[in-house]
Specification:
Belongs to the nitroreductase family. InterPro entries: Nitroreductase, Nitroreductase-like. The chain has 7 helices and 6 strands, in the order ββαααβαβαβαβα. The protein is α+β, with helices and mostly antiparallel strands. It has a 4-stranded antiparallel sheet with strand order 3-4-6-5. The longest helix is centred in the middle third of the chain and has 23 residues. The radius of gyration is 20 Å and the shape is globular. The model has no long low-confidence stretch (mean pLDDT 91). A hairpin with a 2-residue loop joins strand 1 and strand 2. The structure holds flavin mononucleotide. The site of flavin mononucleotide has 12 residues, from strand 5.
Length: 207
């Protein structure tokens, strides 16, 4: 990493980035990397190692965050009995709880004060972090499924030692891939359905 970002060349908090190193780092990444990530709900019995979990968290920690405020925590559970207890009342995981070899509870810290935009940003930041964690798992050939944090996280709060100011962003179930496994055939939207390229001028500001 130091070859890409030269902290030694930093001046007043600015680091120099080496374009060549960035290009070398991304050269091996193809669109297939993204196309092969699907939500996985059936896993092999092979446990996920601590080193793999730590690597996924290290990758997640690179996610951008508003104002550089990185208030995330990842609570990870790998004992199947514990995962079953944590997800006992989870409505989105019926039928595959026993398949999960790991469960990450991703949290962020609630801002103090009434600032509504900070409260919104904490969920946006949390989404970027969670997605980066999912890609951190995928980059190691591990499967995952995001699970909603449930509107009412009291079941989790009763069982996971969360600080009072921690809010659950979402959960991520994960594990090693089976040789063959089923996924929901969720269609990806067509680029033309979601991309709106604006090449002209924009409306003058309304008063
Ligand atoms: C915030 C969020 C919450 C989700 N919650 C659940 C869930 O509770 N149960 C589940 O089986 N899948 C859940 N998913 C996975 C989605 O169903 C899945 O991503 C979607 O169907 C697209 O499929 P894909 O991930 O294979 O592309 C969730 C995904 C997100 C982003």
């Amino acid at each position: 990493m130091s070859a890409v970002i030269d902290a030694g060349a930093s001046d007043a908090g600015i680091c120099a980035v080496n374009r060549k190193s960035v290009l070398a780092a991304v050269a091996g990444i193809r669109e297939d990397f993204f196309l092969t990530r699907r939500s996985v709900r059936q896993f092999s019995a092979v446990p996920v190692s601590d080193a793999e979990i730590r690597r996924a968290v290290r990758i997640a920690a690179t996610a951008p965050a508003d104002g550089d405020r990185r208030f995330f925590k990842v609570h990870v559970f790998t004992r199947r009995g514990v995962i079953a207890r944590l997800l006992a009342a989870h409505r989105g995981a019926y039928g595959f709880v026993s398949e999960l070899r790991g469960l990450a509870v991703i949290t962020t810290t609630r801002p103090v004060g009434p600032d509504a935009s900070e409260r919104r940003d904490m969920w946006v930041d949390g989404g970027f972090f969670a997605m980066s964690f999912v890609y951190g798992l995928h980059a190691q050939g591990l499967g995952s499924v995001v699970l909603n944090g449930t509107p009412d996280d009291s079941v989790l709060r009763a069982r996971v030692p969360l600080a009072d100011d921690e809010s659950v962003v979402c959960l991520v179930g994960f594990g090693n891939l089976r040789d063959r496994y089923p996924v929901a055939c969720s269609a990806r939207p067509e680029v033309d359905d979601i991309l709106l390229t604006h090449t002209g001028t924009v409306r003058p500001r309304l008063r």
